[in-house]
Hints:
CATH topology: Rossmann fold
Number of domains: 1
Order of helices and strands: HEHEHEEHHEHEHEHE
Largest sheet: 8 strands, mixed
CATH superfamily: P-loop containing nucleotide triphosphate hydrolases
Helix content: 25-40%
Number of strands: 8
CATH architecture: 3-Layer(aba) Sandwich
Number of helices: 8
Distance between the termini: 24 Å
Shape: globular
Amino acid sequence: MKSTANAHQFGQLRARIEAAFSEPAIIVVTSAARGDGKSATAFGLAESLAAADHHVLLADANVGAPTLPRIHRVPNAGGRPDVVTVSRYAKPVAGQHFDGISFADERLEFGMSMDKVKAVCFDMRAHFDFVVVDTSQLLRSDLAVLFSTVADGTLLTLRLGRLPSAADEETVKTLTRLAANVLGVLTVSSSVIKEFNAQRAAVFETIRIPTRHVTSHHALVPETPREVAVETSRSNVVS
């Protein structure tokens, strides 16, 4: 995130992550509902960690709304012959200071076993200080479940102003059953989500990816920025 306010918010989150984990560490970002700011949080945390001189990888496992393969020309691991050595295919993300790789492919999602995800995480830990994994909603994604089980920590996001639902409770119960290390709930303001969507659209317009270069089978048109009728507020981690 480019604004001073958002940089400060993610700087606080980054400081908590640094205090809680030694390198290397894998942090999963997920939620109970779509539009809760998962990708905005994952990008913001990755950028903040990279700005603190960590070698960072952003892994896009958000099959429902991928950002890296669709907009940033980052390769999709689904087409690789040996996905467990995926770090060799990571590349710098446009306009950022970290590398990226994408698992956002339905063909890959349903072919990933626990052993394969463990191997992928072992490979990523061997090459990066921090790995931030952006996922789909936990209850709708095998990849989100698998990565949360193996990761060092899982961060839940909740759009500021959205009332808790039964899906939130079930998400927490699922993570508990998985024995995942839940770091807490990050409330994400509308300003963070809107700024991320605006930046994503700007990158798309700048790159203008030809169809032949797209490594994911998802549509090229970025999602319309979500208008959220709530007051902006600072994000807070709730332990």
